[in-house]
Each structure stands twice: as structure tokens, then as C-alpha cells.
Amino acid sequence: MKVSREQMAENRRRILDVASRLFRDKGFDAVSVAEVMKAAGLTHGGFYGHFSSKDDLIAQTLAHVLAADSSGGGDLRAYADAYLSPRHRDNAAGGCPTAGLVADIRHQTPAARSAMTEGLRSQIDRIGKALPELDPADRRRAAIGCWAAMVGAVILARAIDDPALSDEVLEQTRAWIDTGISQVSAR
Amino acid sequence: MKVSREQMAENRRRILDVASRLFRDKGFDAVSVAEVMKAAGLTHGGFYGHFSSKDDLIAQTLAHVLAADSSGGGDLRAYADAYLSPRHRDNAAGGCPTAGLVADIRHQTPAARSAMTEGLRSQIDRIGKALPELDPADRRRAAIGCWAAMVGAVILARAIDDPALSDEVLEQTRAWIDTGISQVSAR
DNA sequence: CGTTAAATATGATACCCATCATGTAAATGT
DNA sequence: ACATTTACATGATGGGTATCATATTTAACG
What we know:
2 copies of one chain form a homodimer. Chain A is mainly alpha-helical. Chain A folds into 2 domains: 5-65, Orthogonal Bundle (Arc Repressor Mutant, subunit A); 71-185, Tetracycline Repressor, domain 2. Chain A has helices at residues 5-26, 33-39, 47-50, 54-68, 76-83, 86-89, 97-105, 110-129, 136-159, 163-185. In chain A, helix 1 packs across helix 4 (54-68), helix 4 (54-68) runs parallel beside helix 8 and helix 8 (110-129) crosses helix 9 (136-159). The longest helix of chain A has 24 residues, at 136-159. The radius of gyration of chain A is 19 Å and the shape is elongated. The model of chain A has no long low-confidence stretch (mean pLDDT 96). Chains A and B meet through helix 7, helix 8, helix 9 and helix 10 of A and helix 7, helix 8, helix 9 and helix 10 of B. The structure holds a DNA duplex.
């Protein structure tokens, strides 16, 4: 049955939201089109009215979720604390899309890679802006280094099945970043 | 046709080697059992004589490739240079199994997670041993922080479709690690 | 209000893949 | 040498999934 314009727009938004959670939780491959539609409260049939293919859904979901993510702009230490928390590690579905999805991007279409690239570009810029006390070269280096360590640590922590080691990876990475920033600032 | 004991052992080794390359290159899901067997010069039929399932192959491949990997033991700076090189970024199939496969581990069986955890444990220890000038607490922190940043940077660099930004992520992470280690050492 | 167009539902279709069943030939042990 | 075992090949089978075809309902527009 046909629905109103706004209803359709809302359906589309819900599909993207739901897809973003499912993809972060289970990975692109493990989520079927029908599963996404069902989670959005629809059936699989309407899917191709919204998207031209599953690859298209993936690319649009990435653009959607990365555009919505504006985290990391304020206090870098507080951001790193939350990012490197067990809570974030255990909440992939609702957590950072980069941590959940970057590694898979290399097997996706050019459109998906492009969306991720733009997301990373602005995230690095945002982190840089959170380090105003550094001169530009140090700032850029610290932003990229911190971000690589944060993303890497969450990915590692999620892979490790020993809770103690997993917690330690998060905690030590947080400490490592902390000393790294402090020392460059104090130089 | 039956083959000799040694021939069978060699076949098994070849399957694991080939699977490890294919998995690193394309991801676990994108590689079929038949594809692995074909790449090993066999047909799909013999597969279940060697492994009880594809999940079993994945777990055994991880144990195989992580046990074989003893990199990072010597000079940490040289190791980071090679690790964070465009060459390594562009050679996922032959590169570090952690960088290529960790992120997928969280969707795999307990056996696979366990194999990866042990691999990470010894890798962190190896990197720690490459930092003898630090006291134990600093050493542990630096080993984990460096490793998270290295793995994270390669994963990010492989996702980014802009060569300039991708190179920059590698290069700046290298510099960030470098200053991090130097400053802790000089303290 | 009636006509039309569009959004979604229901129901194929076709393909890929993990796994299994059976055949075959060669290695192993006596 | 012979019997037996066994590693691998060939050829199903079954389930899952992306995508398409058609039907249905109702919003949109005159």
C-alpha cells in the first residue's frame, strides 16, 4: 500500500538507522536485506524502491551515519576516556561507526570507500581542533596518531576473548595517548 | 586417489597457507571452501577430510599463521617503519594477519577468538621486549599503545581511497609513535 | 470524487555455497 | 602380492539470499 511522502521519508530514515545499527553489530555480510527491512518494520519487497542494491544501501548508510557522527569535537581527554571504555567496546551496535566498520570498507564498493574517507577526514580535523595548544604540525600528527590508536585499541579489545587483557588494552592505550599529548604540549 | 602420508601433510600445510593468504586478502566470508581448495591445487571434495567445517579451517588457519608470525622482536623503529609503509598497506594478502583479520574476529567462533587472543598476547610481549630501555610499566604501556596505533593506522590507511591521505595516516602515525617512544625513554 | 501513480506486500527466481554421498585409485601393512 | 584402508575426486542436496515480478492499497492531484 502506498504511504504519504513524509511516511516514506521516515521509512527511509528508519531503514538507514536500523541498517547502521545492524551493520555495526554484525558486519555488512552477515546482515541480509530482508533482515534490515524487517527491523525497520517493513517487508523485503519495498527495498528496491528506496535503494538500487545492497551495495547502495551500504554506501548510503555509511554517508548517513558518518554525517550524523560529530563526536570528538570538545575535550579530547574526555572523548578518549569514553571511546576507550569497556562500555563502548561492548556496544558496537550503538558505538563509533569507524571502529565497527572501517576494516570491512576495503572489500566494499568505491562509493562506500569514498563515504568512509570523508568521514575519516572530518574526524581527524575534529580531533585536531580539540588540540589548540599545539602548533599545526604537532596537532596534525597528534590527531592522526591518537585516532589510529583509539580505533586500533577498540578493534583489538573487541577481538580479545580474555576480559582482563581486553580491559588492559583499552586502559593502557588511554594512558599512552594521555602521556603522548601531555608531553608534546609541555615541550 | 589416496596419497602418501607426507603428501597429505603437505597438502594440509598448503591449504592453510593458501587460506591464510586468501582470508587476509578478501576476508573470511568472501572466500569459499571450494576457492581455497582450488588455490591449493585440490578439489572441494577432500576438504572435510582435513577440517570439520569452514569455521574449523578459520580457527586452524589463524593458529597456523599467528604461530608462524614472529615479527616485531628486533628493532621496534625498523619494525614500525616497515609496518607503516605503503608497501605493507598494499599487501594485505602477504601482510600482518592481525591487521588483516582482527576486526572480523569478533564475528567468528570461540576457537578463532582464542587463537587471535594468544597471537595478540605474544605480539604485545614481543614488542615489549623490543623496548628494554623502559621500566616495566612504561614498557607495557608503550607496547600496547604502539601496537594499537600500528594496527589502527594500517586498517585506516587501507580503507581510505585518497592516496595522499592514506600515506599521511601511515607517515604521521609513524612519527607519533617515534616521538612517543623517544620522549618516554628520555624522561 | 475519480483517476492515476506510487509505495509496499507477497510471492517467485536464480545463484552461490557449505556440507554430504559415493566412487576410485593408490598407499600401507602383512 | 593381497587385502584393506584412506585421501581425494565427482557429483548431489539443501538452505540462504539478492533481486525481480506482480498484486494491492492508498496518497496525490485534478
